[in-house]
Amino acid sequence: MSFDKMNKTLIYYTANRENPVFEQKVIDDMLKKAENIPIISVSQKPMDLGRNVCIGDVGFSYLNERKQILIAAKLATTEYIITSESDFLYPPQYFKFKPKGDNFYRWENIWIMWLADRKRQNFYRKRSTSDGAQIVKRDFFVAMLEKYLAPYPGWYEENDRQRDPRHSPYHRVPFTPISQDIPCVSIKSNFGLTYLTGVNNTPEGITKNLPYWGDVSKLRAKFS
User: Fold this and answer.
1) pLDDT tens across 149-182, in order?
2) What distance in Å separates the CA atoms of residue 166 and residue 150, rounded to the nearest whole number?
3) What is the 3-state secondary structure (H, E, C) of 150-204?
4) What is the side-by-side order of every strand in the sheet holding 176-178?
């Protein structure tokens, strides 16, 4: 199957709760590596980023985040969607990956970097896959999100355990892992939806240096 960059759309979604200087650094890093892949951004404040849809200050919740993803996915016309978040760093290989026809791919090599937690900030910690680093067939993605969000028609100002579904849209959905030596880095800035995340607590799950990204202290200083 012939495949090129124009078979993919990069969707960027944000509640604009991060420090604007920090978020712009993340965006600039993403744009430098994504090159000419078309971008659809869905935000809660207006942004000059590809085709932007501003939905207003509807609230900060997982359900709203997934509704923003669905808006972007519906607007895309390419075969595949690439997800991109406001607190995630991606290597160039992420944008160059060529799907081979499967519905759902996830980057397997994900590490966490904390900006403000003194107990953790001197180390990267490995975690499992993330919905912030995935490549999905557009039609499959839209159908999956529509089914998941059907019981939740409104916007939700915050996470509410009585209304939030127990599982994410991706729960038990099979995916094809993307195994790469170069990781993606999820940044915990204390302004995201959650500051805590499951990590690998074995010695193999902690390091001060990562391929491509280098020393954690230097990378943290660059994005602080």
Assistant:
1) 999 888 988 776 556 666 789 888 999 999 999 9
2) 15
3) CCCCCCCCCCCCCCCCCCCCCCCCCCEEECCCCCEEEEECCCCCCCCCCCCCCHH
4) 51-54, 39-43, 8-14, 80-85, 134-137, 104-107, 176-178
Cβ(201)–Cβ(128) below 8 Å: no
Rounded to a whole number of angstroms, the distance between the first and last alpha carbons of the chain is 42
> What span, in angstroms and rounded, lies between the C-alpha atoms of 195 and 4?
36
Share above pLDDT 70 across residues of the chain, in percent, rounded to a whole number: 88
Distance of CA 159 to the CA centre of its chain: 18
pTM equals 0.90
Out of 3.30.450, 3.15.20, 3.90.550, 2.40.50, select the CATH number for domain 5-223. 3.90.550
| Angstrom distance (rounded) from CA 48 to CA 41 | 9
DSSP E strands in the chain: the ranges are: 8-14, 39-43, 51-54, 80-85, 88-89, 104-107, 110-114, 124-127, 134-137, 176-178, 184-188, 206-207, 209-210, 214-215
Yes or no: say if 145 and 165 are a contact pair by the CB < 8 Å rule.
no
